[in-house]
């Protein structure tokens, strides 16, 4: 197999009338999805998209997935833009990407026009009669190292980096994810993550491989946890792959106690550290469900390590990130050498999930995608994640924080994540983030809770952490700022800190 | 009794620049995202000393300033 459309074609042949991609108002079957991809692919190929990038400027709804598959059918590769982002950041992305076309819909056409890229509407593309001969010619010339999409992540310098993902990456990754979590045509994913975020790739491409249905969840329901659960029940959603903050909204409101439990059998999470207390709330309500903590940067397609929960964890005990996915190898390196168990080092990954690199950024690519220092005999690329990990006594990987979140305070090296984990046993705590305030040389814990719990938190941490790790200031926020992916926005907190 | 102006003032505090009419749709239009709704819930609870339960946290209670006002008055009378 060399092209992800082969997965779509096989599934459409096997389950033509089964629901594939759905949102609040529309349902597309597998046969309709394939037909749409061919129509859009024909339209885009006719406008020179083959072998070139196409930007998608569409809402977080099922038709956006049809557009992605249409770009791939045209032999091009897509980038999903966040329509809610400031025009300036979108312009930075389109400047780097230099797309052949921008695919949008009538509703977004006025805003899209400002981006100064040749534009085609999805409505027009869908109305195009498919040209089978042309699409076959494109497919014959394709190889599995061709790009499927470029996903932009925030760069530390403020310039977004486009992670270039190939068909081979998606084929290998979706094979692992489908087999590991026993995803089948009986699976109904409740898609929470936006399509410009790597986690959505799991929902979409594992569905393509297995015939699972993807229910794209309306974003506004994440404000109303009981209604969100009722929606999952109404749509028969049985599998979640959400960011911990989204699972945390349900736990903070104890929403599972207020309505019928949705028929969930598999609950997966990734993207940030899962507060174990919130997870325990979910586990108490779903004792028979499978829970797994997934870990991976966008540069490994989505995931490179995972930990399936098979034992109980205390509320303030950190979850491991477990072990490498099949067909993916993980190295823990320090100064170019493997570290012994128990010692911290930088996590590096190699294998078929590894992205081709950063789009149009050879220097950034060379910085992070490097020759494996443990194997100097032939070219072999590993990706440096920038995450610190160690092997624990069980042989599992434990996440210790970002290399750039590691700070020196009073001469001690401190992982801010460790402070957050210790804080999380405080029962009223809904969310927290620990930051270092260099000008004042102190730690500040931002937390969200329905009432002031600074004193109980202070006592709790004093009993669990050495004094140099205890925050000097406890700052209650009405809302923890979130970035576009729904994760805690540490940059905004840093700004608050600087202003204070 | 409270006034719609009190609700509008809280909305402007939660999201600076937000100045909807009493009946303007806040949720489906995306004017308030989930983080802002949580912030609004906390402000309303503190300002009016009411307890908003998970069952009160429904779209129909928050979709306009007028609906928010009705929720506050109902909870105060409970």
Word description of this protein:
Chain A is of the alpha/beta class. Chain A folds into three domains: 1-166 and 179-184 and 192-216, Rossmann fold, CATH 3.40.50.12780; 218-354 and 364-403, 3-Layer(aba) Sandwich (Rossmann fold), CATH 3.40.50.12780; 410-499, 2-Layer Sandwich (GMP Synthetase, Chain A, domain 3). Chain A is built from 16 helices and 27 strands. In chain A, the strands form six sheets. In chain A, strands 2-1-10-9-11-12-13-14-15 form a nine-stranded mixed beta sheet. In chain A, strands 16, 17, 18, 20, 21 and 22 form a six-stranded antiparallel beta sheet that branches. In chain A, a hairpin with a 7-residue loop joins strand 7 (147-153) and strand 8 (161-166). In chain A, helix 1 packs across helix 9 and helix 2 (30-46) crosses helix 3. Chain A is globular, with a radius of gyration of 23 Å. The model of chain A has no long low-confidence stretch (mean pLDDT 93). Chain B has one domain (4-77): Non-ribosomal Peptide Synthetase Peptidyl Carrier Protein, Chain A, CATH 1.10.1200.10. Chain B has helices spanning 4-14, 34-48, 59-62, 65-77. Chain B has four helices and no strands. The two termini of chain B are 14 Å apart. With 78 residues, chain B is an all-alpha fold. Chain B is globular. The mean pLDDT of chain B is 93. In chain B, helix 1 crosses helix 2 and helix 1 (4-14) packs across helix 4. Classes of the chains: A alpha/beta (500), B mainly alpha (78). Chain A binds chain B through residues 84, 219-227, 249, 253-255, 257-258, 450, 478-482, and chain B through 27-28, 30, 32-39, 42-43, 45, 53-55, 57-59, 62.
């Amino acid at each position: 197999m060399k092209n992800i459309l082969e997965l779509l074609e096989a599934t459409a042949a096997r389950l033509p009338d089964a629901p594939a991609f759905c949102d609040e108002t529309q349902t597309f079957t597998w046969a309709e999805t394939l037909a749409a991809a061919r129509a859009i692919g024909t339209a885009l190929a006719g406008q020179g998209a083959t072998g070139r990038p196409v930007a998608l400027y569409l809402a977080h709804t099922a038709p956006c997935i049809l557009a992605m598959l249409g770009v791939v059918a045209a032999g091009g590769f897509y980038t999903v833009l966040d329509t809610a982002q400031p025009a300036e950041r979108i312009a930075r992305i389109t400047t780097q990407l230099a797309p052949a076309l921008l695919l949008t819909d009538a509703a977004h056409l006025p805003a899209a026009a400002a981006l100064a890229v040749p534009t085609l509407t999805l409505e027009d593309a869908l109305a195009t009669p498919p040209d089978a001969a042309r699409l076959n010619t494109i497919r014959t010339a394709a190889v599995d190292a061709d790009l499927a999409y470029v996903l932009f992540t925030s760069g530390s310098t403020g310039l977004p980096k486009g992670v270039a993902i190939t068909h081979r990456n998606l084929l290998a990754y979706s094979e692992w994810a489908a087999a590991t979590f026993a995803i089948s045509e009986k699976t109904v994913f409740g898609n929470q993550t936006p399509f410009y975020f790597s986690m959505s790739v799991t929902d979409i491409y594992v569905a393509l491989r297995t015939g699972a249905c993807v229910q794209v969840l309306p974003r506004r329901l994440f404000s109303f946890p009981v209604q969100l659960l009722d929606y999952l029940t109404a749509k028969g959603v049985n599998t979640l792959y959400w960011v911990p903050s989204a699972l945390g909204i349900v736990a903070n409101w104890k929403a599972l106690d207020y309505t019928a439990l949705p028929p969930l059998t598999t609950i997966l999470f990734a993207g940030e550290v899962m507060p174990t207390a919130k997870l325990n709330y979910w586990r108490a309500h779903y004792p028979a469900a499978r829970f797994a903590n997934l870990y991976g940067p966008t540069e490994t397609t989505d995931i490179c390590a995972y930990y399936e929960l098979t034992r109980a964890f205390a509320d303030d005990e950190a979850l491991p990130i477990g072990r490498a996915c099949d067909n993916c190898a993980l190295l823990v390196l320090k100064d170019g050498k493997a570290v012994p168990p128990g010692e911290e080092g930088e996590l590096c990954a190699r294998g078929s999930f590894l992205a081709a690199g950063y789009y149009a950024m050879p220097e950034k690519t060379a910085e992070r995608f490097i020759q494996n220092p443990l194997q100097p005999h032939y070219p072999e690329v590993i990706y440096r994640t920038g995450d610190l990990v160690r092997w624990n006594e069980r042989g599992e990987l434990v996440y210790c924080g970002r290399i750039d979140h590691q700070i020196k305070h009073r001469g001690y090296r401190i992982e801010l994540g460790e402070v957050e984990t210790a804080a999380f046993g405080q029962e009223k705590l809904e969310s927290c983030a620990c930051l270092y305030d260099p000008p004042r040389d102190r730690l500040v814990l931002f937390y969200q809770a329905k009432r002031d719990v600074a004193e109980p938190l202070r006592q709790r941490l004093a009993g669990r952490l050495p004094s140099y790790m205890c925050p000097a200031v406890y700052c209650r926020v009405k809302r923890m700022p979130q970035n576009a992916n729904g994760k805690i926005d540490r940059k905004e907190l840093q700004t608050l800190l600087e202003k204070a | 009794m409270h006034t719609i102006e009190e609700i509008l003032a809280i909305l402007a505090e939660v999201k600076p620049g937000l100045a909807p009419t009493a009946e303007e749709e806040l949720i489906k239009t995306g004017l308030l995202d989930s983080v802002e709704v949580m912030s609004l819930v906390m402000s309303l609870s503190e300002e009016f000393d009411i307890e908003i339960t998970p069952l009160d946290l429904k779209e129909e209670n928050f979709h306009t300033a007028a609906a928010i006002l009705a929720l506050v008055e109902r909870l105060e009378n409970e």
